[in-house]
Structures are given as structure tokens and as C-alpha cells.
Amino acid sequence: MTPATTFAGQKLALFGLGGSGLATVRSLLAGGADVLAWDDNAGSRDRAREQGITVTDLNDADWSGFSALVLAPGVPLTHPEPHWTVGLAQQAGIPIIGDIEIFCRERAALAPEAPFVAITGTNGKSTTTALTAHLLRHAGRDVQMGGNIGTAVLSLAPPAENRVHVVELSSFQIDLTPSLDPSVGILLNLTPDHLDRHGTMENYAAIKERLVAGSDLAVIGVDDAYCAAIAGRRRGERIRLHVEGHGDAAGDYVCRAGAVRGPDGAVIAEISGIQSLLGEHNLQNAAAAVAAALRLGLTGAEIAAGLKSFPGLAHRMEPLRRIGPTLFVNDSKATNADSTEKALLAFRDIHWIVGGKAKEGGIEPLAPLFDRVAHAYLIGASSDAFAATLDGRLPFTRCDTLEAATAAAAQAARASATDAPVVLLSPACASYDQFPNFEVRGDRFRALVAALPEA
Q: GO:BP terms for this protein (predicted)?
């Protein structure tokens, strides 16, 4: 745990008692702060009390005595409308911050030169975070990994000059971190997402830009217009990532032919043949991780060894099993069309399990890739909309549940006359209609695949 010593003796309001909220309360208390914590959800309040945390209704609090409001990232700051605690904090004239801001203040106080890699983007940030941490660990570094990828940042060991923090950040977390200043800031890509929380794409992009604006080294993918513009505005040290065939061909690191190449065309890292890094999009993810590793002193040999031993990320292009010629792939983390596009580009003869709680635009943007799909199996609340999109363009079956879709796809793939059919769960949707989160959805698919008989 990182005790929040920079808030010692201060009184803070904290709203949101999920996993990161509970970790933040413990960190603040350990650092000597006085914390009044609350959550609108009774179950969350009960779980906090069970862990010995005092819960106080912030509606009845005297806000003039607070130094700050610590807000959970899942709570609306601006859109669709500010949470009621935000209004009270603004009336009291106090800052509204999150747990990443607390971490940044601790780093500034304890070890301002401590290595800190911060990673964001619409897609690919979890893979890039996990790969960066793996490369550094494999080379013998003391690495702490957390943030949006799973472990709350304040649950990690404190910043130290010989310890690297590799942290994935969502736009919600960045929005609550005014002093964000990583050693290496990585921005992978930007496509429309979370617009219900940010209002417009321009607002969303501006928030993401803060991560690289405050970094010592900015690593920016330039294959979309928003990121290319951000890279153009960057005045400090930067590396641009470019996948050949997209965007600005003047990228500092060019990804092509299964390798990451420097400005002179020389191969920096070889990716082809690594099963945990399938797909063109993983070239960009790997390039970003390699850039961070080189900046932090790893050698080419250390990076090559780390890439080859990377186990991959659960639920993201995760090869599960091969039954005869059929490969089963768990891509449950693909919760929007842009993310699913990466999976469809990686395979052919796809038996595609798709659906859930649809995002804006649905799967229409994927139409150019429908020729890669042998059959689609529709699940969840999006079935009617997706059936309308696919009608007359692609064979599909309404399956409703993941169980029915997995059985149908496995049977059809087994009967396929092609050499390498793929059963791919890449829903292009959130999971909330049928599952608590994409992890539970992916775990269920993994169990269903494991239970299938051999060919």
C-alpha cells in the first residue's frame, strides 16, 4: 500500500466505495488524514463498514472544512450531469481529485524521479500496460502494475527510485488528476467512446491529451486524426507510432511486416510468430511497450526475450484451445466495434459470436470485414439491431445466450471445409445486459470451450 502522507492532518470527503475507493480510504487513513466516506449504494456502504471503515452521509457534512473531494472515477464529473457531491465541492471551492492524483502527489514528495509509465487510449491500453510491465519484470526490475487494469494504484507499493510503476488510465481517471506527470506517457489511439460521460469527442480527446502533455517522453500513435493532432501539438520529447498503410508515414516508429522499425528502417523488435500478440493492432501495442522499455534502460536482447515470453492478456485475443483445426479465441474485452475490428483483421473463416449492450454505431463500421466471417451468432440485447445490420450481407443465427452461440459455432466450425476455422468471441458490445463485466463473460466462454469434446 502507498500511505497518502501528503494529506496528513487534512480532512477529506470521499465518494465511491468500490474497490479503488476502499483502497483510497485505507491509504488516506494510513497517511494520517481524516476521511468522511460515502456511497449512494447501500451495499457498498455495508461492505465498507464490514472492513472497519466509518461511513458518513456527506449530505449532512460541513463542506467548508474539507481540503478536497476524492471522487471515484465511475462517478460523473461533468456529463450527463455532475454528481451531487461535485456540486457541493464546487460550492465549497475545494478541488475534486481521484486516487491517481493522490499517487502523483506522493511520488512528487517521496521520489520525484521514480519511473512512472502511464498508458491510455480507447483500445489496446490493457495489453500495452501488461506487456510493458512484463518486459520490465522479465529484465529483473521491481515493477508495480495497476490502475484501470485491475489493482488500485494506492494498493501498490510506494514510489521509489528503483521501482517502476506501470499504470493504465481511463479518461475518467485522467480527468481527476491535474498534476499527472509520468516519465513516459503513452497515448495509443482515439475513437468515439464514453461520450455519455464527456459530451463530445473533442472533450474526450482533450482529456486523454493531458496524459502525454505532462509527460517527460510522449509516445503517441498517429493512425487517427485526433492523436495525429495531439502529436503535432506536443512540444516536448516525443515518439510517434505509425502502422504502415495508415496515417502519417513519417512516424518515428513504423510497424510493418511483423516488426517494429525505427526511423532508419532497422528492426527494433520482432513480433511475428508470437501467439500472444496476434493482429496488426498488437504491433502498435508492442511498439509502445518497446519505446517505454528502451527509455527505462532495457537492452534489445532483454526486450526480445520479454516479448517471446509474454503470456498475453486474458480476454483480449486470447487463444483458448484448438479442437482439430478449429481455434477458439476469447476476445471478450472487445466492447466496441473498433476493438472487434482488430480481431476480425487477424483471422479468416470466422465463426463470430457477437452482441450484448451495443455501443453507438453498432457493428455497421465493421461491414468492410464481413467477408472474413463465415457465420455470425447473435447474443444479448443487441440481437434485433445486429440482425438488421447483417440481413442480406452475412449469414447469422439468433442464439440469445453465450451458451447456445458457443455450441452452434463449435458445431458449424467442425463441419467447415476450410483448413483453419476460428470460433471468435468478440462481442463489439458491453456485457451489462447478461454479465456483470467482460471478465465474467470471457470466463464463461472459457469454461464452455473447455467443456467441449475433442474432435
A: cell division; cell wall organization; peptidoglycan biosynthetic process; regulation of cell shape
125 catalytic per annotation: yes
Question: Is position 146 annotated in a ligand binding site?
Answer: no
Task: For residue 79, give the C-alpha cell.
Answer: 456529463
Cross-strand bridge partners of residue 261 = 254, 267
Residue that the C-alpha cell 466471417 belongs to = 373
Exposed e or buried b per residue across 240-257, where buried means at least 16 C-beta atoms within 10 angstroms of its C-beta? bbbbeeebeeebbbbbee
pTM of the model: 0.84
pLDDT of 16-49, one tens digit each? 999 999 999 999 999 999 999 999 999 999 999 9
Please name each of the domains of the chain with its CATH number.
5-97 (3.40.50.720), 100-309 (3.40.1190.10), 318-450 (3.90.190.20)
- The reply, when asked if residue 121 is annotated as ligand binding, is yes
Tens-place pLDDT, residues 184-240: 999 999 987 777 787 899 999 999 999 999 999 999 999 899 999 999 999 999 999
The verdict on whether residue 122 carries a ligand-binding annotation is yes
Instruction: Evaluate whether 214 touches 240 at the Cβ level (below 8 Å).
Output: no
The C-alpha atoms of residue 112 and residue 135 are separated, in whole angstroms, by 23
Examine the residue annotation and report whether 79 is marked as an active-site residue of this protein: no
Locate 8 and state its grid cell.
496528513
Sign of CA dihedral 68, 71, 75, 76: positive
* Annotated active-site residue in 11, 79, 194, 246: 194
